[in-house]
Specification:
The protein contains 4 helices and 5 strands. With 120 residues, it is α/β, with parallel strands linked by helices. The protein has a single domain, classed as SpoIIaa-like domains (Rossmann fold). Strands 1-2-3-4-5 form a 5-stranded mixed sheet, sandwiched between helices. β1 and β2 form a beta hairpin. α1 crosses α2. The longest helix is centred in the N-terminal third of the chain and has 18 residues. It is globular, with a radius of gyration of 13 Å. The termini are far apart.
Length: 120
């Protein structure tokens, strides 16, 4: 599994991504987060591209799935944390300018700062 979901608080979700992120695994994680949001209400999300993250699955179509609109409406902030070489790709992948919530990218050494920014 290349994506692991943890609930550090009822309103703070941490997704840790390693290796090659596969489309099916991301869709499963989105559905898991969707269920959590339905039970706990709007949340903040930290996506951590851990050491060893390689990239997204090649040649996959990364279209939205049925739960994406709900996820976007019920995410209040998103922090992306990882090597700065992934910054532009990650912000583009998550459509930074088109989502209805704040999103920031942090280098790995600022993991705790990213978490504090989410909780603030």
């Amino acid at each position: 599994m290349t994506i692991h979901i943890a609930y550090e608080l009822p309103t703070l979700i941490v997704a840790t991504v390693t290796d090659v992120l596969m489309r099916e695994e991301l869709d499963d994680a989105k559905r898991q987060i969707h269920d959590h949001l339905q039970a706990h209400g709007p949340c903040r999300l930290l996506v951590f591209f851990a050491q060893g993250f390689i990239n997204l699955q090649a040649l996959a179509t990364w279209d939205d799935i049925d739960v994406d609109p709900y996820l976007q409406r019920n995410t209040t902030r998103m922090a992306l944390v990882g090597d700065m070489r992934w910054r532009d790709s990650a912000l583009l992948f998550f459509f930074n300018s088109m989502v209805p919530f704040q999103m920031e990218y942090f280098p790995p050494e600022q993991y705790e700062l990213a978490k504090a920014w989410l909780i603030d």
